[in-house]
Write a structure and sequence with these properties.
GO terms for molecular function: nucleic acid binding. The chain is mainly alpha-helical. The protein folds into two domains: 1-31, no CATH class; 32-102, no CATH class. It is built from five helices and two strands; from the N terminus they run E-H-E-H-H-H-H. The chain starts with a strand and ends in an 8-residue tail after the last helix.
Length: 103
């Protein structure tokens, strides 16, 4: 089966979400709570949010289109850099005993 990583935000740990993962035979990777600096996707969303701020506010029905445009404009090298930094992130997190890191 698959292994899925998510943070422990309340919507992610809701019972119906947990039941879905069990029913689909998806294992969850244990992940520390309140550790957005450990998740590369959070950094990607920061880039998206920052870039969206440079455009006029889209109408609600256009928001996903704008998000997709900005998302696809992020260079693959940036994504790869975040992926490549995971070992350093984990080492820093362990060294900080689960506390804040430079990431």
């Amino acid at each position: 089966g698959a292994i899925f990583q998510q943070d422990n935000a309340r919507p992610h740990v809701a019972r119906n979400v947990q039941v879905f993962f069990l029913a689909q035979h998806i294992l969850l990777l244990l992940w520390p709570t309140r550790s957005p600096d450990m998740s590369p996707i959070e950094h990607v969303w920061d880039v998206v949010t920052h870039r969206l701020a440079h455009y006029p506010s889209p109408a609600t029905n256009e928001l996903w289109t704008w998000i997709e445009v900005v998302w696809h404009a992020i260079p693959q090298e940036h994504i790869q850099h975040l992926f490549d930094s995971m070992l350093r992130r984990l080492e820093a997190f362990i060294a900080a005993h689960g506390g804040c890191t430079k990431y």
